[in-house]
Amino acid sequence: MYDLLLANIAKYITLTQEETDYLISLLHTKKIKRKRYLQQEGDTTRHTSFVISGILRMYSVDKNGFEHIIQFATPGWWIGDFQSFLQQKPGNLFIDAIDDSEIIQLSKTDLDNLFIKVPKFERFFRILAENAVAAYQQRFVNSLSLSARERYQNFAELYPSLVQCLSQKFIASYIGVTPEFLSKMLNQQMQ
């Protein structure tokens, strides 16, 4: 059950068996049915979550009711409203399951204890945070400087498996266009 998570961790740090056992003692698994929320706007994020199976999406909803997808998380990815998680204050993001999903969760309190007992986890989560900031920064630059077609091509190159399994509505929201515009653009591309 924890193999994918332990493989993810092993990319960056090496754990002893005792450290692995301690980590596992802190973890909890949770199943989320398709279209069910892990978190809603106004909730305080109490756990960071690692996806074992399924696909989750994190998004905001603007004052006009339009969804803006910030992140998809597939098996092997972490997801959470990290501002809410770090500050332990109500968040402004939604996270729901696109497919039936299973996640591993680690509470804020347990994560803080993990940092104290196994300091190398600070390195692990620092690397994750650095990678996330770099990815978000690049995505922000792309949203300002690339055309919709280029943003779609970028998404398709980075996440080819998602292009096959996500609805055009979700992809459109992620790249910042309407579903109608994306459909028209893809139809023109095929001609």
TrEMBL record:
Q: Where is the Cyclic nucleotide-binding domain?
A: 11-115
Pfam families reported in the protein's UniProt record: cNMP_binding
Q: Which PROSITE patterns match?
A: CNMP_BINDING_3
Domain of life per record: Bacteria
Name the record gives this protein: Crp/Fnr family transcriptional regulator
